[in-house]
Amino acid sequence: MKLSRKCDYALRALSLLAVRGGDGYVSIADVAEAEEIPPRYLEQIFLALRNVGLLSSRAGPSGGYRLRKEPGEITLGEVVRLIDGPVAPARCVSETAYEKCPREDVCVLRPVLKEVRDSIAEILDSITIEDICRRAGSSPA
Length: 141
Hints:
There is one protein chain. The protein is mainly α. The chain is 50% helix and 6% strand. The chain has a two-stranded antiparallel sheet. A hairpin with a 5-residue loop joins strand 1 and strand 2 (64-67).
């Protein structure tokens, strides 16, 4: 599993919204500037996050985006799967995008790949946006 640039941007932007947002809205321009993310690309990311209910938006001069859920309710696993897809290192061990492999029954790697998948999922599903903000020394608003 490799974290895409798009997913990196999404996680960084969500973290910034957690710290700066509070009850207010943060503009795309402010997030893009603070996190050095191209604004048009960030718009696409925010649209996807809004469509699944992670963000809410408001138009106008005091508008922008804010978290729709508490930072402690948004896991890294949820965001990674939304943006990058399955966290499995191979499709034959994926729980969400499984594809049968002709050598599945005799493959010596499959049990190890399954263990890797389980470990990655456990870690990503146990860490929230709030956790990464705290680890970085920033507290969510």
